[in-house]
C-alpha cells in the first residue's frame, strides 16, 4: 500500500541547506550517488573530508519488512560506536525524524577520509586489493569485539528488551524474511526452511555473548579506503547493525583468503560452527532471492543464491546438532 504522505525526492538546494547547517560550513559540495537502497548524497567540505546524507527511498521502491527502519537503526549504531574507543568510525552528525526539512527523514554521518572502494577498485592492482581485503578483515574483527546487553535490535525502543537467546532472534529474523517471500508468492520451500532452523536451535544458542553485527557490510559501495596505503578507513552504512553472532555478516558468506588473514579465525572448526554457518548461508541466499523478486533491477545472482540455498538445506538436513 502506498503511504498516505510518501517521502518526496529532496532537491539539491534543500540538501545543501541542511548540510551547511549541520556541518556549520558555507561551502559544501553536494553530489547524489547511486548504488544504494536509500537515497544517498556525498557532502564534501573544504577541509577535504566527506560526509554522507541519507534519506528514505522513493515511495515506489518496494522494501522488505526489515528495511523499513534503517535510518533509525543506523543512528543507534553510530551512537553505540561512539562509545567504542578502539574503533575509528563515522560520527552521527544529525538524525532528523520528521519530513519538515527535506520531505523525508534523513541522517548525516561522517567525516570520512579516503575514497569509496567501488570508485577506485578498477584501478587497483591485485596486491592492493588483497591488502584492502586484509585490512577489512581487521576492521571487522574490531567491530565484532563490541558487545551489547542482549541479542536483537541495538535500540531498546517501544519496550523491546532484546533476548538472551540468539536462536530466538535468528529465527525471528528468518521468519520475517520468509513472510516477505510468502507475501510476494515466491516459490520457496518455506516449511522446510522453518523446520531446519527449529531443529538447529541448540547450535545457535551456543552463542552466549551478543556482539555487534553488520548484516550487509561487504559491498564495495559501503567500504571507504585510503588508496595510498591500501587500508580500510571506515564504512558508509551501519543501518543493518544489530546484536548477534558476527559470523552472520555477509563478509563471511564467501570470504577471501586475505580477509580471513586479517580477521583471524574463520568459523569452520567444529560441527556446531559449521551448522551455524550453513544457517547463515541459508539466510543470505534467501535474502538474495527475495530481494531479486522485490527489486529485479538490483545486482544479485538469483540462480546462484537458489543453488546455495539448496546446498545449505541439504547439509542441514543431514546433520544433527547436540
UniProtKB/TrEMBL annotation:
Matching SUPFAM superfamilies: Protein kinase-like (PK-like)
Record protein name field: Aminoglycoside phosphotransferase domain-containing protein
Coiled coil: none
Pfam hit, one: APH
Aminoglycoside phosphotransferase domain mapped to chain residues: 34-247
Superkingdom, natural source: Eukaryota
Organism annotation: Salinomyces thailandicus
